[in-house]
Amino acid sequence: MKIAIYPGSFDPITNGHLDIIERGRRLFDHLMVAVAVNSAKSGLFNFQERMDLIKEVTSRMPNVEVVSFKGLLVDFVEEKKAIAVIRGLRAVTDFDYEYAMYQMNNEMSKTFDTIFLLASGEYSYLSSTIIKEYARYGRSVAAFTPRPVSEALLKKFGHDG
Ligand code: ADP
């Protein structure tokens, strides 16, 4: 069985992430969406909330599993015997960091490769950070996130009436 891992903070999951999940799951037998627990970023949603939202919006995708991981991605990928890590690339600004991560992971382990999926045009400007900024001040982000996420954001920021 060919397993791929799509790691990230997903704080929270957006339509851009969801697009990568849909495309990634077509390429592999099993796709693990791996939520980083101890990423350097401090999140708006805690990791349990982030996982629950991803589970809810991927519940109809039989070959998608939502997991959390601590520590190094390379250790987690080896432990799960995955053959690939999937990352999304938006603008060129994503490239430097992703390239460095790829090089380091490739030095550390030869058991998997990293596959970069280019963001679909309509999502190429979408980021969790920008979405949180609009939601914070009460703007609807329903066009950019799955419904449970836009509702959770409104609630988090006290705009749910
Ligand atoms: P991280 O903290 O690991 O960057 P993110 O949750 O921000 O976690 O992103 C996870 C992955 O999804 C990254 O590879 C990122 O480039 C990708 N990604 C984020 N937003 C989009 C989008 N709108 N379209 C395609 N890929 C995206």
Structure description:
The chain is α/β, with parallel strands linked by helices. It has a single domain (3-123), classed as 3-Layer(aba) Sandwich (Rossmann fold). 40% of the residues lie in helices and 19% in strands. It has helices spanning 15-27, 47-57, 73-80, 95-108, 128-136, 147-156, and strands at residues 3-8, 30-36, 64-69, 84-89, 113-118. Strands 3-2-1-4-5 form a 5-stranded parallel sheet, sandwiched between helices. The longest helix has 14 residues, at 95-108. The protein is globular. The termini are far apart. The mean pLDDT is 94. It binds adenosine-5'-diphosphate. The site of adenosine-5'-diphosphate has 18 residues, from α1 and β4.
Overall helicity: 40-55%
Number of continuous helical runs: 6
Strand fraction: 15-25%
Shape: globular
Mean of residue pLDDT values: 94
Strands side by side in the biggest sheet: 3-2-1-4-5
What is the CATH architecture descriptor? Answer: 3-Layer(aba) Sandwich
| Structural class estimated from helices and strands | alpha/beta
Please outline the major beta sheet.
5 strands, parallel
Number of strands: 5
Low-confidence stretches: none
CATH superfamily placement = HUPs
What is the H-and-E element order? EHEHEHEHEHH
CATH class identity: Alpha Beta
Gyration radius, in Å: 16 Å
The CATH topology: Rossmann fold
N-to-C CA distance: 47 Å
Features:
161 residues; alpha/beta; Rossmann fold; five-stranded parallel beta sheet; 6 helices; binds adenosine-5'-diphosphate
